[in-house]
Design brief:
The chain has about 400 residues and is an alpha+beta fold. The chain starts with a strand and ends in an 11-residue tail after the last helix. The protein is built from 12 helices and 16 strands. Strands 6-5-4-3-2-1-7 form a 7-stranded mixed β-sheet. It has a 5-stranded antiparallel β-sheet with strand order 14-13-12-15-16. Helices cover about 30% and strands about 25% of the residues. It is globular, with a radius of gyration of 22 Å.
Length: about 400
């Protein structure tokens, strides 16, 4: 049987670029090459698409400025009749087809990958892909829209306020007064559309708040300020599936500082272990009742944003009061949360199998939809003035 060609897409114009490389290499190493042929597709920090065997090795990325040398320029065309990786220049018509892509595996963390933009390209190209669709990806990336959807679905979130960077620049005092009248210090200040704790700061007072908003405003035009759950712990749970998803075991992420920051997430475990090497407790040392409730909330959150494939849902928990608050959902979790599924009895390789099959199921479901309708509107309008407009 011919092996399915899996296009692993990673890198891109994102501050989480290096994290994406680690996740992609972990996935590509875990792929069962008896079943699948890996087609690595790397997007540079400048947005150039390249492919080649060199991308399968970690040492190729030690100097990112040199990593594209000796690689083939390539891209996916937004043409449903192509479904392939195209090689060549800016003009793709007539260019050589490098590889047919049976399933795309988007592993771009953050902007231009996890936010629905890459998923939109794959939808236009009619290529099955792993993970959340355009809507689920966009909602999962935007902390403001995400929390609004959670609240609409009666899922618990901490109190928060959001505003625009331009509003902060023009009405700083007014916004500070609103924050302090509505929320209690300490506060967390975050860009709406970023992950990996980048741009996030904790504010204990007004001076901290001003500094934190200034930092966050470098990363997004929409900013969110939310209350901190003092004395709480971070509990994460992964969800796998499409319409009938299941939850993994829970983990407790361990932080030695005020919160789990970027370096703690990705550097503490060593140069090559990535998220697997970060310090964590699996299963989380919480009661069975609390574990079950978190797993239920995780599945509900997954469904609320219309997610599919896999995600990791992060919670803040006050064990003394049995309080649970949804923090965020990650639609392309670091290392695709394989360590949570290994602890749940599913190997990394088996997890990849399940994700590929889920993506094919999603594509079959989409193909049940009607996308074309033969209307007589052109004949009806022919000969009439187009200035009259068309009513809907």
């Amino acid at each position: 049987m011919e092996r399915l060609k899996i296009g692993v897409i990673f890198g891109s114009r994102s501050v989480e670029h290096e994290v994406s490389i680690i996740t992609a290499l972990q996935v590509m190493q875990a792929v069962d090459t008896n079943k699948y042929e890996i087609v690595p597709i790397y997007i540079t920090k400048e947005g150039h698409w390249v492919t080649g065997e060199k991308l399968l090795k970690l040492e190729s990325f030690m100097d990112l400025s040199l990593s594209v040398s000796g690689l083939q320029k390539a891209f996916i065309a937004p043409d449903a009749s192509v479904d392939s990786l195209i090689g060549g220049s800016r003009k793709w018509f007539g260019e050589k087809v490098l590889k047919k892509i049976d399933v795309a595996f988007p592993l771009v963390h953050g902007t231009y990958g996890e936010d629905g933009t890459l998923q939109g390209l794959l939808e236009l190209a009619n290529i099955p892909y792993v993970g959340a669709g355009v809507l689920g990806s966009a909602l999962g990336m935007d902390k403001i829209a995400m929390k609004a959807v959670f609240k609409e679905n009666q899922l618990p979130v901490l109190n928060y306020i959001w505003f625009l960077r331009k509003e902060w620049e023009n009405k700083q005092n007014e916004i500070i007064c609103k924050i302090e009248a509505t929320l209690k210090y300490p506060l967390f200040v975050k860009p709406a559309n970023l992950g990996s704790s980048i741009g996030i700061s904790k504010a204990k007072n007004r001076e901290d708040l001003i500094y934190a908003v200034d930092v966050a405003s470098h990363y997004d035009r929409r900013l969110i300020v939310e209350e901190s759950l003092e004395g709480g712990i971070e509990i994460n749970c992964s969800v796998l599936g499409n319409d009938d998803p299941i939850a993994s075991v829970c983990e407790q992420a361990i932080s030695w500082d005020q919160f789990l920051n970027y370096d703690e997430k990705y550097l503490r475990g060593g140069k090559t272990t990535g998220l697997k090497g970060a310090e964590r407790r699996i299963p989380a040392p919480i009661s069975q009742e609390l574990t079950q409730k978190i797993q239920e909330f995780a599945v509900d959150a997954f469904k609320a944003i219309d997610c599919c494939g896999i995600s990791r849902v992060d919670f803040l928990v006050n064990q003394k009061k049995d309080e649970i608050f949804l923090n965020e959902i990650n639609t392309i979790p670091g290392s695709i949360a394989f360590y949570l599924w290994e602890a749940s009895g599913i190997t990394f390789s088996e997890l990849i199998d399940k994700l590929v099959n889920l993506s094919l199921d999603t594509q079959k479901e989409k193909n049940k939809n009607v996308y074309s309708y033969n209307s007589k509107i052109i004949t009806h309008v022919a000969g009439k003035s187009l200035k009259r407009g068309i009513g809907k």
